[in-house]
Design a protein that fits this description.
The protein is built from seven helices and six strands; from the N terminus they run αααββαβαβαββα. It is an alpha+beta fold. The protein has two domains: 85 residues; 153 residues, GAF domain (Beta-Lactamase, 2-Layer Sandwich). It has a six-stranded antiparallel β-sheet, sandwiched between helices. Keywords: Membrane, Transmembrane, Transmembrane helix. It holds the Pfam family GAF_2.
Length: 264
């Protein structure tokens, strides 16, 4: 991002330098014409088309510089807005990760299902998504099961199961490959996953891994608007791994408590 700002500044500097050179050349031309005319009225009458032409060139140059300046200003504003979005997104994910760190450190005042439900709700806000879901591997059945979902069409997704390797979530779980989804990617790689009446403008699906072992999948989708980018993929992948550790710790904590109860 800093590199982009420097490019804009260099372009602005070159434009200003060019403006100075051309204005100097035009002024010199006017001085030479004025000196050659000797002040005679006849000479002025003969030279007025040249003066008008030079004035027109100056006007065109000024308009061109104004357009160039406006274009650079718009580009700079766009870069600054992108930098703000990136910083805001990073802050939201830091806040979300901190939340689940704290929940673990205070002996997990939330149960596992409560943590999953809270995570999908917060992901909606963090990523301005229309739907978010978390699937976890059921070790007994060997299937991935949607354990929490929030947002649009949540009822259609809740409780769904897939085998590892099948569909988008199964592919991400089996390969460990985060995916940025677009309509083109869906049609090319997952045509069977395109559901009638359900439009996905963009999406991100990332694996949840603990010590290089996949335990689930996190997915977010948008029906429209600005598509997800590489930054969203990287941040969601980092969060998914972080949250996977919290899920594993929560399960371990519950198992320890259960053993204590049985031994009591």
């Amino acid at each position: 991002m800093t590199h982009d700002f420097r490019q804009v500044e260099r372009q602005r500097g070159r434009a200003v330098a060019l403006a100075g050179v051309l204005m100097t050349a035009l002024c010199a031309a006017l001085v030479l014409l004025g000196g050659a005319g000797g002040g005679a009225g006849a000479d002025l009458a003969r030279s007025w088309p040249t003066y008008v032409g030079l004035a027109g060139l100056v006007l065109l140059f000024a308009l061109s510089m104004q357009r160039q300046h406006a274009r650079l200003a718009a580009l700079e504003a766009e870069l600054r807005a992108a930098a703000v979005r990136e910083a805001t997104l990073g802050a939201r994910f830091s806040e979300l990760s901190f939340l689940f760190d704290i929940s673990t450190q205070v002996q997990l005042r939330l149960d596992l299902q409560g943590m999953l439900d809270l995570a999908v709700q917060r992901l909606l806000a963090c990523l301005e998504a229309h739907q978010s879901s978390i699937m976890l591997l059921d070790e007994a059945s060997g299937l991935l099961e949607v354990r929490a979902v929030a947002g649009a069409d949540a009822g259609l997704v809740a409780g769904a199961v897939v085998r590892p390797g099948e569909g988008i979530a199964g592919h991400v779980f089996a390969t460990g490959e985060p995916l940025a989804l677009t309509p083109e990617v869906m049609r090319r790689r997952f045509p069977a996953e395109t559901k009638r009446g359900r439009q996905i403008g963009s999406g991100v699906c990332v694996p949840m891994r603990f010590r290089d072992q996949a335990i689930g999948v996190v997915s977010v989708t948008r029906a429209g608007g600005e598509p997800f980018g590489d930054l969203h993929v990287r941040m969601l992948a980092a969060f998914a791994d972080h949250f996977a550790a919290t899920v594993v710790k929560t399960r371990h904590h519950r198992e320890v408590l259960e053993r204590v109860r049985r031994a009591a």
